[in-house]
Every structure is written in C-alpha cells, then in structure tokens.
Write a structure and sequence with these properties.
The complex is a heterodimer of chains A (245) and B (253). Chain A has 245 residues and is an alpha/beta fold. In chain A, 34% of the residues lie in helices and 24% in strands. In chain A, the strands form 2 sheets. In chain A, strands 5-6-7-3-8-9 form a 6-stranded mixed sheet, with helices on both faces. The longest helix of chain A has 19 residues, at 226-244. In chain B, helix 2 packs across helix 10. With 253 residues, chain B is mainly α. Chain B has helices spanning 6-28, 38-47, 49-83, 85-100, 103-114, 118-142, 146-154, 159-196, 202-211, 215-243, 247-251. The chains are: A alpha/beta (245), B mainly alpha (253). Chain A: InterPro entries: AAA+_ATPase, ABC_transporter-like_ATP-bd, ABC_transporter-like_CS, ABC_transporter_ATP-bind, P-loop_NTPase. Chain A: This is ATPase component (TauB). Chain A: It holds the Pfam family ABC_tran. Chain A: Residues 8-231 form the ABC transporter domain.
C-alpha cells in the first residue's frame, strides 16, 4: 500500500466563539505516521480544532496544511464519540457506507476481513441495535479502517465506554491504525499515556498548545508500565496547574 | 395499576358502549329516528348488507387512491423543500394557506371542477392527506443528526448520495408518523366529498339515510366507516413499525 501518512501543520490558526478567542495564532505539527494525542479539558476547543482539520468547520484565520500538499479532505477519516452507525443498515453495510456514499464498488471481502480483525465476524449481518456499546464502537472502527485513509481523526472515540471495553478498544486501535497519522482527542491522561507517541496538551483561555516529552515504549503501552504511570501523574499535574491560570 | 393489552380493552370498550347505548335507549325512551337501538342498527345493517359493503368499497377505493396520491404529493413537496431553499421559502406559505381553508368549504368547488365521480373525492382526500405527510417528512429531513451529516461529509458524499443514504432513511420514522395521521384522516376527505355531491359511497348513503330519517342505516354506515378507518390506521401502523424498525433508535438522538 503506497499510502504515505503525512504530517499535518497548523499555522496561526484562530478560532473565535461568540467573539471571544477560543485559541488564537495556534501553531503546531502533528507528526506523520504516529499516534498524536491532543489532551485537554472540555470546552477548550479540541473538538473544534479536529473539525477544522476534517473540513467540517470553516477556517476564518490561519492555515491547515499537510505534506504532500494534496487536499486534506480526501485523505482523512473521522471517528466521533458516538459510533454514528446507521440503525437501518447491518454492521457490514455500515462498514461499507463510504463506498456507497462515493458511488464506488463495495469491497465485501475487505469489509469482512476488517470485521474479523476487530472481532465482529459473528455479527456481520446484525443491526447496530443488537450490539453492545463496545461492539458498536468496534464496528465504527471497522468503518474507519475500511475507508483506508492515511489520516485518522478521532474525537474522544472511547469516552462513552466502560473501562474494560475502553482498554480493549485502545489495544485494537493501536494495532490496527499502526503507521497512520492519527490525531486522537481525549480528556483522559491515562489514555494519552497508553496511546501517545506524540502528546500535546491544549489548555488555557485562549488555549495554547504544550508539547509533552515522549514516553518510552511502543504503543499500546501496558497499564502496569511504570513509565505510563509516571507520565500520567505528571500529565495530570500539568493539566491542573495550567488550567488554574 | 394493571395495564390491559389493546386487544383486551377494545372488545370490553365496545361491549360497554353498546350496553350503555341500549340502556339509554331503554330508560330514556328516545324515539328511534333520533337514536335507534343497537339491535335495530344491526337489523338495518343486515337488511342493507350489499348496499353498505358496496358503498364502503367505493369509499375505500377513494380513500386509498387519495392516500397514495396525497403521500406522493407530500413526499415530493417535502423533498423539494428540503433540497431547494427557494422552493422552501415560497411554497411554505402556499401550503399553509391551503390548509387554512376549511375542507368542507372546498368540497363543493372540487365537485364542480372534478365532477360527481371518484376524482373529486380522491382530490379531496389528497388535499387533506398531503399536509401531515409533507410537514412530518420535511421535519425529519431537516433534523438529520449532525454527526451523520458530518460523517457523510468526511466520506466525501455528494449531496444527492447523502440525501439517499443518510437523510431519507433518517427521516423515515418522521415520515411514518405523518403517514399514520394521514391514514386516520384520509376517509374523512373521501366522505366529505361524497356528502357534497356523489352518486355512491358511504357519504352518499349517509346523506340519503339522513334525509329519510333512516337513522339506523346511518348508524350502520358510520359503524362501517369507523371500522374502515381503524383497519387502515392499524395496517399502516403495523406496516411502518415492521418496515422502519429503527424508529426507536433514531428517537434517542
């Protein structure tokens, strides 16, 4: 697969909400081919930033570019907090939704293969309402994988899950999205430390980005990992400290 | 409080109402041309069976044709309004004005224009039906959950494909509730048309019976009419719940 996972550059990006700056002149880089984690409290503008990258929110000031300079919108796949599965379609139909929407041929064997990878082989023809929350989110992950885009944007995709399902989802995600440019938004320092190869936090009013030193070990890092636990504590402290300003 | 299933409550209600009716008839001594007894209604029903069923069949045909054409018009208008802002702006007032005219006042005009035959009744039913269908379906089309629209956008869907594979299926539960209302009021349209000018149908029969003080026959016709309405509504409700099983899921959003 000649998919090169490009880095994403944010230049002087500004977002105003009700005439107040949420963030202004934001500059950062999301590295290509790794898990970029963007950590921050609710309402700090993380989701808006992700939507701007996804082309879902208009950019009033600043620029978002990627390398090579092809259009971003055809390279991204977006995964939200809700699974956004269509209730009228079976699991496999949901996975292949993108093909249908782009009037392309549906690749059934590819969809089946992906569903096998996420452990949903036995519910291929069931409807989303018949699945548990964790299974639904795995189906959403399968849909994201089916799109086969080099850039994956994830907006708190696991926050609605219980901790066991969440931990499993983190494992699946780290494995299956390996090599892609992932930007994952979360408010959970633990998740950031398990999955982050490049961790940035977005804090303050107006919000600013801070880079966090990288954590040892390849992802998904084990919860027992001493580095994970240390980094998590540091991260939490940093969040509290920065938010207090 | 114990809850009883519908199939249990309906017979109980019917028997109760019949007893009450018979009781009023017996004790208040109302003359039969004002309020016939249930028994005499039954006799009238039996004696005029062929006439009643034939009339009901005609009304039923008008209702179904009206329902189909009204739904067609309703779907078309809703789609056009949701797709083209210009149409939405100019059509909405026209639709509202059309609904502000009492249907009964419109009926003589329709008979004048479309004749005493079936077409004036179908048009009448159509005018009554399209509005709930249009408004419910349009409402559904404009309220597609934002997340689905965004997902469609990131998948580079064209507006048409987005409509076909996301917005229309997402609007079907709303459409179904409009359709259920339409099914319940459709026979009214047909019967009103028949009252004003017709040579057949339940409305025509009722008007004739009314003029001749055949109140028992009128009651029999009314009974058939309400039976028809309930069956139609029931059939539509069962069909929509079977065909659109995700109505429950969509409501969560």
């Amino acid at each position: 697969m000649p998919n090169i996972s490009p880095p994403i550059y944010i230049h002087d990006l500004t977002l105003n909400y009700q005439n107040k700056p949420v963030f202004s002149k934001l500059n950062t880089t999301f590295q290509g081919g790794v898990f970029n984690i963007l950590l921050g409290a609710s309402g700090v503008g993380k989701s808006s930033l992700l939507k701007m990258i996804a082309g879902l929110l208009p950019i009033s000031e600043g620029q978002i570019t990627c390398e090579p300079t092809a259009s971003l919108t055809s390279q991204i796949s977006y995964m939200a907090q809700q699974d956004l599965l269509m209730p009228w379609a079976t699991v496999i139909q949901n996975v292949m939704l993108g093909s249908k929407l782009r009037k392309e041929k549906q690749d059934k064997s590819k969809a089946l293969h992906i569903l096998e990878q996420v452990g949903l082989s036995n519910v291929v023809h069931q409807y989303p309402s018949q699945l548990s929350g964790g299974m639904r989110q795995r189906a959403a992950l399968a849909r994201t994988l089916y799109e086969d885009r080099p850039i994956i944007l994830m907006d708190e995709p696991f926050s609605a899950l219980d901790s066991v399902s969440r931990s499993k989802m983190q494992d699946y995600t780290a494995q299956l999205l390996h090599g892609k440019t992932v930007i994952l938004i979360t408010h959970d320092p633990f998740e950031a430390c398990r999955l982050g190869e490049n961790i940035q936090i977005l804090v303050g009013h107006p919000a600013q980005i801070h880079l966090i030193p990288s954590i040892q070990g390849s992802i998904p890092r084990h919860p027992d990992d001493i580095h994970v636990q240390q980094a998590q504590a540091n991260l939490l402290n940093l969040l509290i400290e920065k938010s207090a300003i | 409080m114990p809850s009883f299933p519908l199939y249990f409550r309906i017979p109980i209600l019917i028997i109760g109402l019949l007893l009450l009716w018979q009781g009023i008839h017996l004790f208040l001594n109302i003359p039969p041309y004002l309020l016939p007894s249930p028994y005499s209604v039954f006799i009238a029903f039996k004696d005029n069976q062929v006439l009643l069923w034939n009339s009901a069949l005609i009304t039923f045909n008008e209702t179904i044709l009206g329902l189909i054409s009204g739904c067609g018009l309703g779907i078309l208008l809703a789609l056009m309004m949701s797709l083209i802002p210009f149409v939405r702006q100019w059509l909405m007032p026209i639709i509202l004005i059309s609904q502000s005219i009492p249907t009964f006042a419109l009926a003589p005009l329709l008979v004048l224009w479309f004749g005493f035959g079936i077409s004036s009744k179908v048009v009448m039913a159509m005018i009554m039906i399209f509005f709930p269908v249009t408004s419910a379906f349009f409402d559904g089309l404009t309220r597609t959950p934002a997340g689905w629209i965004e997902l469609g956008k990131t998948m580079n869907a064209s507006p048409l494909r987005q409509l076909l594979y996301i917005r229309i299926p997402a609007a079907l539960p709303s459409f179904a509730s409009g359709l259920r209302i339409a099914a319940a009021i459709a026979p009214i349209g047909a019967v009103v048309g028949e009252w004003v000018g017709a040579s057949s149908g339940l409305g025509f029969l009722m008007q004739n019976a009314n003029n001749r003080f055949q109140t028992d026959l009128m009651f029999a016709a009314l009974f058939l009419l309400s039976l028809m309405t309930i069956c139609l509504w029931g059939a539509v409700t069962i069909a929509t719940t079977k065909l659109i099983p995700w109505a429950e899921d969509t409501r969560e959003f």
